[in-house]
Amino acid sequence: MKLSAPIHQLKRQAKLLARQDNIALHQALDRVAASEGFGGWSLLISKSNNICAAENFAKSLEPADMVLLGGRPGHGKTVTSLEIAFAKLAAGQDAYFFTLEYHARELNAQLVEMGFGELMSDAKLVVDTSDEICAEYIVRRMDGAKTGSVAVIDYLQILDQRRTTPTLDAQLRQLHSFARQNGVTLLLISQVDRSFEQSGKAFPELSDIRQPNPIDLDLFNKACFVHDKQMRWNKAA
Fold first, then answer.
1. Which residues, 6+ apart, have CB-to-CB distance to 75 below 8 Å?
2. Of these four, 61, 91, 132, 152, which has the most CB atoms within 10 Å of its CB?
3. 85: buried, middle or exposed (CB in 10 Å: 19+, 13-18, 0-12)?
């Protein structure tokens, strides 16, 4: 969900409200948060920090990057990837979202909840929900994409779910070559193995990536991990 104003302006609104209604500042802050669609000021700040983190990560992405975005189910992978895509759009670059996981209606609901509006009303984000999505399909679909374009691929472990497609490792190598030759950034959402939950680590790592079929993780030069709606990133290779 996008905020109606920057944090410092919302704080100023809360201070004015506190004086106007003669209430404590923390109460005014919670009222402002409620008007933004949050249950309290702390929740608003948490969400705002995550949006800033996604925007900062988006700024670090460069043409030809191969990026891994990993996390357990329900911890914010899809939301984070969309925030990164929209940050790239705001910077004047093209953004694609290829998904084998969601239908357009589900993505619409996600985008509305995030405050971006309905998918069909924003043609800037190119969304593809075809069942044919694989490396070859993505390369063909992005033929002619401008240098600096970013594509989110949702998600890594099901790119080879059809028996007619090449192995996952072969597809990754094709995508890696395409990114380098065309100067596009590819961000692949990835599952994290459930053993991570018992590891005691604050964030997943490359060693936690679920690999039903072996892949060469050195093909990724950057990695981002999400856990409890927070994110952490580093150079992967």
1. 226, 227, 228, 229
2. 152
3. buried
Its sign, for the CA torsion 140, 96, 113, 80, is: positive
Q: Cβ distance 72 to 84 under 8 Å?
A: no
The token pair at 104 is: 């357009």
Secondary structure, 3-state, 111-134: HHHHCCCCHHHCCCEEEECCCCCC
Kindly state the average pLDDT of the residues 130-156: 96
Q: If you average pLDDT over residues 23-50, what whole number do you get?
A: 80
- The DSSP secondary-structure symbol of 211 reads -
CATH assignment, 60-235 = 3.40.50.300
CB–CB of 69/81 below 8 Å?
Answer: yes
What percentage of the chain's residues is helix, strand, coil (to nearest 5)?
Answer: 45, 15, 35
Q: Residue ranges per domain, the chain? A: 7-39, 60-235
Amino acid at 5: A
> What's the chain's average pLDDT?
87
